[in-house]
C-alpha cells in the first residue's frame, strides 16, 4: 500500500486541484455544463457546485443533516441540485478556497483531496477530456479508500482481488491479480467502476 502523505503536501495538492478545476470549469460551454456527470442525478454543473460545499460551516451542515434525516447521500445530492450557483461563481469560489484548510465536519484532509480527484473525473470523463491524477495523490487516495469503509467499502466490494498499480508503488488485497494505472484503481475504489478503464466492475 502507498505511504501516508504529509498533511502539508495533501493541502498543496488540494490547492492545485482547485485552481485547475476552476480554470477548467470556466472554459465549459452551457451544453457541456448540462451534460450528465458520472454522479447519478448530477450534471457537470452540479458537480462543480458540490466541490464548493466542503466549506459549508458545521452549523449549516448539521441543520442540513437534520433536514434530510441524516441520510447523507441524499443530503449531499439535494444540496447540489438545490444550489443555484452558476458555474462561473463556483469557479470563483474554488479559487477563493485556495489556502484554506477547512474540511467537512467529521472528516480529514483526505476527504477534499479525494473529492477533487474523483469529481474532476466525474466532470471530464463524460466530456471526453483526459484529466490526469498526480501519482502520489492518487496513491494516497487509493490507500485511503481501501482502508476506510463508508461510503464506498472498496475492500469489501473487491474481496478476492489483488490490485497492483502499473505506474506507482501501490498494491493491496489478496487473490486474483489486477494490474492497472493508479487512476483506474482510484476510480474503481471510488465507485466509478463503469469508467475505471479495463477493470471489471467491483463485486
UniProtKB/TrEMBL annotation:
SUPFAM superfamilies: DinB/YfiT-like putative metalloenzymes (SSF109854)
Record's signal peptide: none
UniProt superkingdom: Bacteria
GO molecular function terms listed in the Swiss-Prot or TrEMBL record: metal ion binding
All residue ranges annotated as the Mycothiol-dependent maleylpyruvate isomerase metal-binding domain in the record: 17-93
Protein name: Mycothiol-dependent maleylpyruvate isomerase metal-binding domain-containing protein
Organism (species): Gordonia terrae C-6
Amino acid at each position: 500500500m502507498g505511504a501516508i502523505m504529509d498533511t502539508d503536501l495533501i493541502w498543496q495538492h488540494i490547492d492545485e486541484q482547485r485552481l485547475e478545476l476552476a480554470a477548467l470549469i470556466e472554459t465549459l460551454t452551457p451544453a457541456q455544463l448540462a451534460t450528465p456527470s458520472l454522479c447519478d442525478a448530477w450534471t457537470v454543473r452540479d458537480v462543480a457546485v458540490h466541490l464548493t460545499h466542503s466549506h459549508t460551516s458545521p452549523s449549516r451542515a448539521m441543520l442540513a443533516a437534520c433536514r434530510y434525516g441524516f441520510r447523507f447521500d441524499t443530503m449531499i445530492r439535494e444540496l447540489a441540485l438545490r444550489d443555484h450557483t452558476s458555474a462561473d461563481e463556483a469557479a470563483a469560489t474554488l479559487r477563493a478556497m485556495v489556502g484554506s484548510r477547512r474540511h467537512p465536519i467529521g472528516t480529514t484532509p483526505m476527504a477534499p483531496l479525494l473529492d477533487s480527484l474523483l469529481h474532476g473525473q466525474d466532470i471530464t470523463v463524460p466530456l471526453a477530456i483526459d484529466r490526469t491524477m498526480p501519482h502520489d495523490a492518487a496513491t494516497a487516495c487509493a490507500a485511503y479508500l481501501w482502508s476506510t469503509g463508508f461510503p464506498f467499502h472498496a475492500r469489501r466490494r473487491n474481496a478476492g482481488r489483488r490490485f497492483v498499480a502499473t505506474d506507482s508503488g501501490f498494491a493491496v488485497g489478496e487473490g486474483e491479480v489486477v494490474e492497472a494505472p493508479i487512476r483506474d484503481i482510484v476510480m474503481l475504489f471510488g465507485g466509478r467502476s463503469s469508467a475505471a478503464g479495463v477493470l471489471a466492475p467491483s463485486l
